[in-house]
Amino acid sequence: MTKKANRFQLKISLKGSKPAIWRRVIVDSDLLLEDVHYLVQAVMPWCDCHMHQFIHNKIYYGPAEDVADSFIDLIDYSDKKLSDFIASEKDKLLYEYDFGDSWEHTILLEKILPPTDSESRAEYVKGKNAAPPEDCGGVYGYAHLLNVLKDPKTADYSDMRDWMGLEDGEEFDPTDLGFDEEELNDELYGI
């Protein structure tokens, strides 16, 4: 019989976001980095339409298809497990998504939990605030977007609403996580 992996309680925080944007998840400690990437995409929720990488001790890890074309020394992460990088409470791993907007996420190991009988290798627990829309210019662009959307007298107000696809009378709620928790956990079950 194969021994089940410990579980990690992780806090995934978008660096530099004000107000703070974060998600708490519980995952198997032996989750592959590729699956951690999909997990972050699902819980933010991002569209997975940009390149990404993990950074640990100033070493960069990414998908095999990006290694040959990378302008930095990028190591193929296809066989790397989460527990290869974080193993003790308070350990951190950096995940960067979209090198233009540079969405940097700190993945903090909050707690090590014992194995469970759950067949799900990842589950969403809690979160705070909406992830910024794709391609809005990083944390500073998002802050600008939020400021513009607060004031209809701002010169960019109509353009920003159009860009966001907001209809008349519709508002963007920066506190809305943008997903149904039950549906998200159903999606994460497949990781």
Report on this structure.
By secondary structure, this protein is an alpha+beta fold. The chain has a single domain (7-131, 176-188), classed as MM3350-like (Structural Genomics Hypothetical 15.5 Kd Protein In mrcA-pckA Intergenic Region, Chain A, Roll). The chain is 23% helix and 27% strand. It contains five helices and eight strands. The protein has helices at 33-43, 64-67, 138-150, 157-164, 181-188, and strands at 7-14, 22-28, 52-56, 59-62, 74-76, 92-97, 103-113, 122-128. An eight-stranded mixed beta sheet has the order 5-4-3-6-7-1-2-8. Strand 4, helix 2 (64-67) and strand 5 form a beta-alpha-beta unit. It is globular.
Which short descriptors sum up this protein?
single chain, Structural Genomics Hypothetical 15.5 Kd Protein In mrcA-pckA Intergenic Region, Chain A, 8-stranded mixed beta sheet
Summarize the structure.
The chain is of the alpha+beta class and 191 residues long. Helices cover 23% and strands 27% of the residues.
Query: What's the CATH C level?
Result: Alpha Beta
- End-to-end distance, in Å? 22 Å
The overall pLDDT, averaged over residues, is 93
Strand-and-helix sequence, N→C?
EEHEEHEEEEHHH
If classified by CATH, what would the architecture be?
Roll
What spatial order of strands do you see in the largest sheet? 5-4-3-6-7-1-2-8
Our Rg estimate from Cα atoms comes to 18 Å
Low-confidence stretches: none
Overall geometry: globular
Number of helices: 5
CATH fold label: Structural Genomics Hypothetical 15.5 Kd Protein In mrcA-pckA Intergenic Region, Chain A
Structural class: alpha+beta
Can you identify the CATH superfamily?
Answer: MM3350-like
Biggest sheet details: 8 strands, mixed
| Proportion of residues in helical segments | 10-25%
Task: Please tally the β strands and state the result.
Answer: 8
Count of discrete domains: 1
